[in-house]
Amino acid sequence: MSLTSTPSPAQIKRVPKVLLHDHLDGGLRPQTIIDIAGEIGYTALPTHDAAELAIWFRESCDSGSLVRYLETFSHTIAVMQRREDIIRVARECALDLARDGVVYAEVRGAPELFTEKGLSMADVVEATLEGYKQGMAEAKAEGYEIKVFSLLCGMRQNKLSQEVAELVVKYRHQGVVGFDIAGPEDGFPPSDQKDTFDYLRKEDAHFTIHAGEAYGLPSIWEAIQLCGAERLGHGVRIIDDIDFSGSEPKLGQLASYVRDRRIPLELCPTSNLQTGAAKSYAEHPIGALARLRFRVTINTDNRLMSQTSMSFEMEEAVKAFGWDFAELQRVTINAMKSAFIPYPERLKIIDGVIKPGYTKISTE
Questions:
Q1: Taking the complete model, does pTM exceed 0.85, yes or no?
Q2: What is the DSSP string of 20-31?
Q3: What structural domains does the chain harbor?
Q4: Of 112, 126, 185, 213, which is the active-site residue?
């Protein structure tokens, strides 16, 4: 066997993985939601059976509507309003990712969503970081090595992005590595937050932008050219700027720019199927974009809502596109190259963990 062989599900589970696009409030364990709901008297859950609740989240998000998809977050947000609950969710997130073979993760969340019961946004950031710290320690005790960092999101429909960006700068040496804007794309273009992105650039702070998911090429263009995004959260609609009608794909001006500049695409295939960006995994643009050598990364987005994991996403890509170990390694290295930690630390993980891990597992 070698890097050009097809990995089995068991091997995929073990290969080192890098995750750049995962929402903390979209990855809770169903039982955790039920437990906390009982403690705080939250009565709006559709069921108190963990297996049934997992199915309810998935089915509710299979509507093909981003708006309906986002509505499911009312339940997860409701059980993340106390410091101890945020710590628990973050701790379990780090542990669950480690058990799935993830060695590096940047997990994002919007602090403003968890302040309904009196926490400040700084309190939310500190609780999240404490949870990751505990989860990483527990993972290490189980034999897993993982580094989890935080991305702070501003909600594009609200007016708190500047405050969130200032928290990114305040906590950037304590576990926060960057900024993002999330929420509905249509009607809330990235340029609405331009002053905040200008501030982040002046502070030499990293940021990604949700763009090209529910809205098309103008969203991507604004995120890159007006706001200076280093990565694109999703960016799947860049496929609209590629003409596949001829014998060879022809890239439009924006698609060429994105590929030439090696701008990372934080692609989340299963999530995109739910929100209507593609009809099937085999038709998802990640296959074509990878063949055209865009800087493709593969991600989970919301593990609860999509009932997914990094292993599942990789398994589906292997089945849909015939990816071998080498292709999985390529997208993993793409992600690590695009991480918001310092270059020497990225290189250390690539050369010390990812490459040796793929070589070992592919030759067993």
A1: yes
A2: EEEEGGG---HH
A3: 15-362 (3.20.20.140)
A4: 213
